[in-house]
Amino acid sequence: MRTIFSVFCGIILATSPALAADNIEIPDSPFKVAPEETEFTNYICEGTRWEMFYTEAKYDNETHTNTFTDKRMRLWLEESIIINGDSYMTLMRAYETDNYENSYPIAYIRYDNGKVYERFSKKPEAEEILLYDFNLDVNDSCVLYYDETFPELTAECSAISEITNEGGVFEVMEMKFTGELYISPENGGDGFVSDPKFDYKGKMKWIKGLGSINGILSNIGKLWKLDAIYHDDILIYKPTNEELGVSEIPNAEVSRQTKAYHLDGTPFREGDKGICIENGKKIIK
Asked: Quick check: pTM over 0.85?
């Protein structure tokens, strides 16, 4: 069976499906999974949630411009279901705009020996895809594949480093991608774009046992932005500015220009005569 990887799987905006397929069942009792201790601690298990930001675009028909606003959403793993004999956790989503009260499944997730698999909530009976392979070593590569509508990408692990965060020490995999990439019209593209040097700005990072710096589903592109990860309501990971590519300038001095200038760059000089307003009063000079 061909090993397939997920590309832009975080783009799913599925509504809650009816689990009517014959090969899907819900166990009598929830299958609870504790963080797994291997070479790294796996937190892709029930009880883990990802606090996320997503960008909402609002188009103005009069000005023909988009207004972008960052809003919050929440992803978390809960009770398992059985699909084709394998146990999958249900990945739920809810939005801050409705106080996280209306939740629904967007995917089914399975973790097995360092690999994370997904089935789409709209087509749970379809073949599973591989989200992450945390077993890759430096210079190891693999082919990322979605389905016939998307081209292949080659993912290469260029470096592995360690970072200390709230929940301990985590291994960070620096991932680079080459091949063809599909860019949707909403993101300024017009379909398939061939770019053998495609590199996600050198900033796409997978975090062993957690997902990526963009959450659990955004394993390729920066569709969403990670704010924090919790397990059993305990903070275990919060991205640093360095990971997100943000630089801080400590004790930066702010210089304020108080002089006024004309558009041609010449200094503005107050006239000797005229009418002006001072302290709310009209003054004639």
From this structure: no
CB neighbourhood size of 197 (10 A): 6
Residue 203 has pLDDT above 70, yes or no: no
pLDDT, tens only, 94-149: 999 989 999 999 999 999 999 999 888 877 777 788 888 999 999 998 776 655 44
Report whether 88 contacts 109 (CB < 8 A).
yes
- DSSP H helical ranges for the chain: 241-244
Residue pair 45/37 in contact by the 8 Å Cβ criterion: no
Beta bridge partners of 284: 275
Phi, psi dihedrals of residue 250, rounded to the nearest 5°: -70, 140
CA neighbor of 52 nearest in space, from 70, 67, 69: 70
Domain spans of the chain, in order of start: 9-244
- What's the chain's length in residues? 285
Amino acid at 116: V
Q: Determine what percent of the chain is predicted with pLDDT higher than 90.
A: 34
Q: CA 9, CA 208: separation in Å to the nearest integer?
A: 18
Residue 217 near residue 240, CB atoms below 8 Å: no
Decide: 134 and 208 in contact? Cβ < 8 Å: yes
- Nearby residues of 238 by Cβ (< 8 Å), 6 or more positions away: 165, 166, 227, 228, 229
Six-digit token pair at 237? Answer: 């990971």
Dihedral sign of CA atoms 211, 51, 213, 160 in order: negative
Report d(CA 92, CA 196) in Å as an integer.
35
189 contacts 196 by C-beta, under 8 angstroms: no
Q: Are 228 and 51 in contact (CB under 8 A)?
A: yes
